[in-house]
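the four lines:
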Amino acid sequence: MRVYELRNKTGLAALSLTERADPRPGPDQVLVKMTAAALNYRDSLVVNGFYPDMPLPLVPLSDGVGRVIAVGENVHRIKVGDRVSGVFDQNWLNGAPPCKNLSLGGDMDGVLAEYVVLDQNGVVHVPEHLTDEEAATLPCAAVTAWNALMAQDQLKPGSTVLVQGTGGVSLFALQFARMAGARVIVTSSSDEKLDLARSMGAAEVINYTRTPEWDQQVLGLTDGKGVDSVIEIGGGNTVPRSINAVRRGGCIHLVGLATGMTAEVFIPSMLVKQIRLQGIYVGSRSMFEQMNEAIDHHKMKPVIDRVFPFEEAIESFRYLAKGSHTGKICIRF
Amino acid sequence: MRVYELRNKTGLAALSLTERADPRPGPDQVLVKMTAAALNYRDSLVVNGFYPDMPLPLVPLSDGVGRVIAVGENVHRIKVGDRVSGVFDQNWLNGAPPCKNLSLGGDMDGVLAEYVVLDQNGVVHVPEHLTDEEAATLPCAAVTAWNALMAQDQLKPGSTVLVQGTGGVSLFALQFARMAGARVIVTSSSDEKLDLARSMGAAEVINYTRTPEWDQQVLGLTDGKGVDSVIEIGGGNTVPRSINAVRRGGCIHLVGLATGMTAEVFIPSMLVKQIRLQGIYVGSRSMFEQMNEAIDHHKMKPVIDRVFPFEEAIESFRYLAKGSHTGKICIRF
Amino acid sequence: MRVYELRNKTGLAALSLTERADPRPGPDQVLVKMTAAALNYRDSLVVNGFYPDMPLPLVPLSDGVGRVIAVGENVHRIKVGDRVSGVFDQNWLNGAPPCKNLSLGGDMDGVLAEYVVLDQNGVVHVPEHLTDEEAATLPCAAVTAWNALMAQDQLKPGSTVLVQGTGGVSLFALQFARMAGARVIVTSSSDEKLDLARSMGAAEVINYTRTPEWDQQVLGLTDGKGVDSVIEIGGGNTVPRSINAVRRGGCIHLVGLATGMTAEVFIPSMLVKQIRLQGIYVGSRSMFEQMNEAIDHHKMKPVIDRVFPFEEAIESFRYLAKGSHTGKICIRF
Amino acid sequence: MRVYELRNKTGLAALSLTERADPRPGPDQVLVKMTAAALNYRDSLVVNGFYPDMPLPLVPLSDGVGRVIAVGENVHRIKVGDRVSGVFDQNWLNGAPPCKNLSLGGDMDGVLAEYVVLDQNGVVHVPEHLTDEEAATLPCAAVTAWNALMAQDQLKPGSTVLVQGTGGVSLFALQFARMAGARVIVTSSSDEKLDLARSMGAAEVINYTRTPEWDQQVLGLTDGKGVDSVIEIGGGNTVPRSINAVRRGGCIHLVGLATGMTAEVFIPSMLVKQIRLQGIYVGSRSMFEQMNEAIDHHKMKPVIDRVFPFEEAIESFRYLAKGSHTGKICIRF
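prediction for all of em together
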């Protein structure tokens, strides 16, 4: 079969299309013929070698979908013909995060391969109304947004959520927050992207290039109280403003680090406002399954920016690096 | 001022329109000129003397809305001109329920009076888009539904909720569950009422006269798993079927006792399914305020069955007793 | 190997010691040489055929401990020489209960056998300071008490807990509640057993034969408020008094049904007091592991009533049926 | 009466003993004759003008105890003769923190006065077994520790807690964590203080001057997993090591800022470890009351370093500033 792999070094130049023997499932495993995959910002960190303790050679990408074409003798959860996605962290099925994570396309081979073998417990069925490309976008970005808003937080109708940007996690967060009846405020540097956000149900939008003090604007939009939750994508440079923009007792979900790896946290504000700063790293299989029920019930559709053929996967990484996309970048096998 | 009161005995015949001196607010109180009120099943229990330890004379009704026309010298939360409702339990502002409740129109005088004096902490502002009659329906039935689904439970998009009937609490529960993105199944004995439920967003409806084994139907509609939550209105006769219809680890919110005061609970099912049977008794001021934000954001409208003038309040109790209404019965002052 | 099994019918007379082929572990399994086992009330239900949908032939007993003497090729959590117990529900590792349980000695063969094969995920290491007999007592009764008090409830120092009786779950509940700094009230019909409870840290004890209105006594001991939590062992006949004895907003953990399978629940009390009646059915592997850390840190010792040799296992069931024991009945291999 | 006040400027030199008219309680207020008070690090921030938006003149100190000698006509929660303490945040009685706090000795006059008038809802009864000086130590430091460990966290027996230092909050945290059956690790620069911590039940102690990489030591003491919770007192300089020392999914309770007002938070660690950084600012009246029940049940005694007479209150601030104390600094009236 054909796979993309980082053989013995990292960097996009080192990512190459190569041949490997077709895999066969062990007694508790399923063999999946991949039909689509999707990229995350994290995948570019992996390809460029910024992921800690990654093994080489490595097949990148955590997100994809395919058909099960064979199953091991002990497999009972899944059957041949099922359409499934792999769970991002193969160790995290339920409950609290495990001591050690085992993420696809990071700690172990990922899904940028024609065939993938996974433990029967490490896959989930995906909603039927989605195309393969759409279904492929869920394992990392969507589960991250779901975990933040629905597992760590308990969003209620009328809650207010601030979503930074319009990347993958952000648009999923907007969609899930709307589904839960929350009021969503979206920030972006692009009016065009803000128009999209508004068309997807954002109650308020802020162009942060025109309004660099967006935290003040958020306070103004919430009677001076601040929002209940922030989906914090910017990281380093945006955390201080998020601390201003969140209400007393509110939660900032640390999801990204687009503007910097280190955040300066002003402790007196954290104390007096009793803020919770919560690191989020995708989520469990159980969260993935709950999310799928919600997506299914609401016939929700992920936003796809562009689809590349399998043969142009390296192009897709270059496109991701440009950062001009809105929604997900996919690969069709 | 004119008030309805049970002077020295109970029973609808004993409820009479009478005169009392106009009340004046103490230093921490507000004086409210009532404009509308609403009835609950509980009010008929009160009027008929089935409410424990009620003082006499007693002005009935917990639910109403009015304008603040005077405030005491220490009042800062509320100002003259505000439109407010009283909190059902004047002792329960926030957090866990207090040791002792103090409910309007039960443990103390209620709102079926032209003027009402309440502690400034015991009132909330009501959503602006609602008429007085609509706003009057919120304090008991709506807060009960909110407490069950949003405080005791943490409904998520895609959760499944079984709502029994189409009375006050039931329709609010349907509306809130929909707002939160849940999938709602409604039972009723009337196809007409089920049509209403469907038009309000119920995903599935069951006529329990045609399908007396509605618990089996609920299992069928949920892949055999059962629902996440039940709004249990029937009480005595319906709890056993609700135990069948709820999923493992699910919750039955005990809200009503329309079919009987005592429920036979089969313990082995409770154990093996790890069911939670949760008694609900309205909710706190804080829940009321959160609910109002949700109602406001969604511009939600309560369902009103009929409005009686103040002078026909006794008629309104008779109409309530017939049980043919759908949604709330109101009184206009 | 020798096993006890119910071959083609139930009843203690049908439980017989027989020979089976020595089992061998599959690739993900471990082979355990059992050294001790323990009995629960539930095991007599199983043996007498009162357990729903049990397969025959069946090896009874969920609780035991042994040494791992062989492991399959994929096993990484466990190694040869480890001392382990099986998890009661082999399907419940973490998080919420699974759709379908798979309990040892009920839904599948249990541990009253010289050798047992289990999935590597279905066993836990047991605290080192315990003897084999002591360790054997944990999987069902101790995890049940832990789940009730530490997972469903969140006991705090100063919380009050009412524990009914001095059977297996009850004494574990007393020990865990004490560990968590709670104040424990124990009921029993025997002064001798109450003396034991007091020596184990019960703050108050009530002999319910001398004080049949023990619910009133509990109210007296809690300034009229009632306790935060009840460990409900009696079931049918005791639930109504537990409803009286628990505080507003408190929780009754349904654990047993010693006095009857059906409880009459008075709904108005459930409503006004906002009581939670929570069915408990043992717990997950993750709860078992957390509990073991607590037992280890506190060097806690289970209370053992009597130990029977493997050859007298049938006697041990008779002794259990008499109901005169305090603490656990064990079997030594 | 005599009070200490900052009249029109801040700084310890501006704190002076002066006379004010004896206060009288309003209809909902109680008049308390103070008998003891206690200092917190926060009080030195107030006196030195580092507390935001503080009004002048201001009587400092949040913590104290006294006897009620008169009550207003509406007062029912409290009676003359009761021994009470003021709640730190007079606005926070229950549930989530209010939009705006109103802290004693910061946002309003505090308790360094012979007589204090407070709202009846703003005081709590204190445990009987405590001396006045001991009882005076509870409102700020003890409630802070309780909120962190028992409200934000849900400490269980066997949980591991890292407590930084041996100041007021730290020793209370050690005591409460022990009460809840947790395993506590304490850090300090002084072997003498660590001996005290050990004598109070710390399972492990680390001298961070001898072991500057105390985070590594904490990992070593927890099988490489890290602790469940950290009581973070140091702030700026210690947060990065706390991030290393806490387990995946664990919680760092931001309580102090002894070593710096700004913490550099490394986002990748926050993400991958899914850490919660939780700002804590004392707690509600309800937490105070729950804590008092626990202190009462366990007959717990606060650690007092030194008691100054009322006339030497300024000396007590100087002593606090030296930072050599262990436990609380009190003032006797």
